[in-house]
User: Fold these one by one.
Assistant:
Number 1:
Amino acid sequence: MTAAVAPPAPGSHRLAAAHIGVAVAAFGVASAMGVLQGLSIADVNFPWRSESLYYLSVTAHGVLMALVFTTFFIMGLGYALAQATLGRITGRGAGWFAFWLAAIGSVAAAATILMGQSTVLYTFYPPLQAHPLFYIGATLLVVGSWIWGGVMIASYRAWRREHPGVPAPLPMHGMLATIILWYLATFGLAVEVVVMLIPWSLGWVATIDPVLARTFFWWFGHPLVYFWLMPAYVVWYNVLPRAAGGRLFSDPLTRMVFILFLLLSTPVGFHHQFADPGISAGWKLLHTFTTYAVLYPSFVTAFTVIASLEVAGRLKGAKGLFDWIGRLPWGDPLFASVALAMLSFTFGGFGGAINAAYAMNSMVHNTAWIMGHFHLVLGTTVALTFMGATYWLLPRLLGRDLRFPGLARAQPYLWFLGMVLFSISYHIAGLRGLPRRVYSAALSGADGARWHGLTEIAAVGGVILFLSALWFVIVVVATWVGGRRLATPATFEFAVPLRPVTAPGVWDRFGLWTAVAIGLVALAYAWPIAHLLMHPRFGSPPFKPF
Ligand code: HAS
Ligand code: CU
């Protein structure tokens, strides 16, 4: 279910391109803040360094990277894939409305952070309180993404009416599962923000229940990470094997993976709350089991994508056991980005399995280890895939040649190098007890000595990451404004499965799987939330330390 669709009418990718543009802008600003944080932790004294600026910057970095860059990129990728595989976007006007809503919301939220009024981190943890506009801005971003999901589903349904009895094109199957998961996940966030945070920040209620708010946040917060990962997997399954010159190993396995994520991503949130009171050990254990279950689709992905790459290498004449690895196009920016992203995920995913075990979690929770973990999985696995995908998308969306291809080729390797230094150091420093979210790791005595060299290596990694981010932004901006116009825009071509599937199967029954997914969320959350509501509750007044 692949093959290139005829080149679209001029301008039909403008909506997708606008989203990618906002994503790259958010990424650029957030990268600059990231490097300052790494330097601050290593106690490098740069001008204007202060505690309040550090926490402001951590909040802005987290919100812009984790919420704005990702969401805009995913929306842009979704539109590009809908146009390329379905040949249409149904409801383009609604799409533009959603774009502006989300952009205005993001700017409003970011402005309150930069004015120092919303230093609450990207997790919104109450009783830290933000300016009401921060929560309202975040809500607009989410509502914008809901409309995007509606446009995507409408486009698919219109296509299906014309193609009865044909399964969704594989890239769209992955995006549809992502969208349904997103609706399920953001329900938790909507309850937290609309029912709890906004009324509290407006002063309509005096206190808030932090555990209840955190529970709704992590209902959203864990599937959020798969909302980032699944579009990356769409690229791994559908674009990477093609770029490598191979075939997709299995179509049905691919569909199964996305449906398993839809089912298992949400009922796992308590693995972020092992240390929270008010949730009993039995419920935490249930969420541990489901967390271990959600490793499975990633194991299948490792198998399927690597098998697809091996096919590519062998099609190019590779012999022996590992010869195929050398035949892969390591000089192609998309391929290199995604391959390095996969390599990072091998270690980052392993770390995730460690986090999910209660006893080991108590060693690493709230330490720098967690920064090491999520910079491997989000900061590399997902972000590097998105950067590579941007190099692949731009000539197709803009009809322009990539500028500075040498820079684009080297940039993923530079990112990987920076991240090795950054992430390994913080993993080790975390095991040695360095807390996360500290303004400075400088401490006299034995504790300080255990961390000091490591935070400095991490800071060097941070500077390298910043340089790599800068190269990426330079390539994108130069291509946008000065890339040579292609006579015919590059076409979207996707990996062809070794054995194409022609009729819908069990993994195409979205209605059924959505119902099962809702059932699993109810099973995992209904009683613990009811229990929290029945407890005598002592609310907290707001805190604004800066
Ligand atoms: Fe995580 C904390 C558990 C995956 C993001 N995670 C976080 C936080 C973030 C985050 C942002 O159980 C911090 C939140 C905060 O601010 O407090 N995580 C897991 C588990 C997985 C996992 C079990 N995390 C992710 C992904 C993320 C992400 C993906 C973002 C995109 N995480 C946790 C837990 C915590 C946590 C606890 C709470 C910690 C605490 O105490 O606060 C799994 O999904 C991982 C599955 C992955 C694998 C790896 C498969 C490997 C593949 C690649 C193969 C390629 C090869 C090489 C071999 C099983 C698919 C290719 C070769 C070539 C030749 C190319
Ligand atoms: Cu999680």
Number 2:
Amino acid sequence: MGAALDSLLEYDRAALVELLGSLGHKAFRATQVMEWVWRHRVADFSAMTNLPPGLRGELAARFTLRPLEVVEVSESAVGSTRKFLSRLQDGHFVESVIIPAAVGRGGAHSSRMTLCVSSQVGCKFGCRFCASGLLGFTRNLTASEIVAQIVAAEEIAGERVDNLVFMGMGEPLDNVDNLLRALTVILDQQALGIGARHITVSTSGNVPGLRRLAAFGRPLRLAVSLHGADDAVRSRVMPVNRKWPLGELLPALREWSRTGKHMITLEYILIRDVNAMLPEAYKLAAVARDLDAKVNLIPYNTVEGLPWVRPSEEECRAFCRVLVREHVPVTMRYEKGHDINAACGQLRLRRESRL
Ligand code: SAH
Ligand code: SF4
């Protein structure tokens, strides 16, 4: 394996002007490179035929346009969602999930294609229901590796991603510098141009990261993996709650919902005898009302190697009815087979366990 090259996918126009300027080239070259990368989607510098050959060679020696390689595409049991697994330059794997509009409802509005991306290789937070935490944490993805998942998805699907969710492997706000750098390119009309209102960042509740994201100042959507409506339950399910307990998280979320343009979504996985009992539903309703948030209930998907149990459909419905009665906007996805979010983390787990 050769040394990893930096990637140009995380350069917005300003950064390209600076880079090319440092190599002695005028600003219009940045416009040309942007067009090759984002309009024509070339994978190779040799295709940039209106650049001087010297510059092409110089860029090719230092940069890559494809920092990951798709090695497996698999159809999911649900609808026509497709998961793909990509190998990074250092040999690690990440996965992403393409969700067509008919399946990607719930916040996806009129979008045609939703993409679920990973933000880290593994995850250090070890939530007790989550496959991503099982192998521990390896490293942050670079901004280019985040962006490259979108480029790859558009190549696989032959159409544009118009709705993006950070619900794959990893905690995006634990990698907030690279997340914000990637978002700059993702939002840039001259690059990927996905609208802020069509991007959802999902977090397990990283308070300093939340503040950074709020300061970024774009009207992104926020999903919070809550999974427990008091500290005792939440700490049992999500050890990260010991670091940033509800007493710290909720004020940061109140601040977000005061200044943000969209309702926060509280994600709540229903786990039998852990957090799916009816008194928990009343506690959850109180938290949601306080934050003016909506709730997304997700019946737990069994993960091989993890102990917990999915409640019956009737138990899930009873939980959901409490929220409805308490006037909390609530959705529940009760699909047979694997929910697409939960499926994130599991493909890589299989692949890395085989190594
Ligand atoms: N680290 C971020 C982003 C990852 S999204 C976060 O925690 O929010 C992780 C989401 O995947 C969870 O909120 C949940 O919605 C889903 N998920 C993970 N494991 C699951 C499982 N076993 N069953 C159902 N949903 C699961
Ligand atoms: Fe990490 Fe999110 Fe999974 Fe928790 S739910 S282990 S924070 S990816």
